[in-house]
Amino acid sequence: MPRGKYVNHKGRARHFTSPEELEQERKKLENKKWRKKQNEDGDTEEEEEEAEGEEGAAGGKAKGSDESSEEDSDDETHKAKGVEGLIEIENPNRVVKKEKKLSKLGMVEPTATEEVKPELSRKEREELERQRAKAHYQKLHAEGKTEQARADLARLAIIRKQREEAAAKRDEDRKAKEAAKTAKTDEVGKALGKKS
User: Where are the compositionally biased (Acidic residues) regions (predicted)?
Assistant: First the structure.
C-alpha cells in the first residue's frame, strides 16, 4: 500500500474534508441562522434570497433551499421522487387518517339511551363461550340429562338401597337383641320366682 493514500476494501481512495472547508460550512450555517432570526424579526425576503445566492456562489450545496422546499412539500401534498411513487413505504411516524369500516359509514351514531356493544377480542369471545357452555352443562346436569348426572344418580340409588338394607338389618338385630334380652329377663324372673 502506498503511503499518504488510504484505500478502502473496495479499492477506492478515501477523500477527507479539510478543516478549512468544515470551518467555512460552520460559518455559513451560523450566518444563515442569524439571517433567519433577523427575518423573523421583520426583514424582507430579498435578503434571504441573497443569502441563498451567496451560498450557491460559494461552491457549497444550497441546503437551505432544499430544506425550505422539503418543509413546504411536507405541509402540502407529498410529491413522489424517483421510484418512490412505485414503491409503497409505510412510515410509522407519519399520521394517516384512520379508515372507517364500510358497515359503520351508513350507520347512525348511537344515542345515549342506546347501549353500545364493544367489539370483543378473540380471547374474550372464547372466554364468554366457555362460560356459557359451562352454565348450560350445569343446567343439564341439574336436570339429570348428562351422562355424568345419570351415572351419579345410579350410584346414589345403589347407595340408598344399601343404606336401607343396612338400616333394616340393624333394626332386625336390635329387635332380636331386645327379644333375647326380654326372654332372658323372663327366664331369670321365672327362675327367681320359683325359688322364692
Answer: 41-55
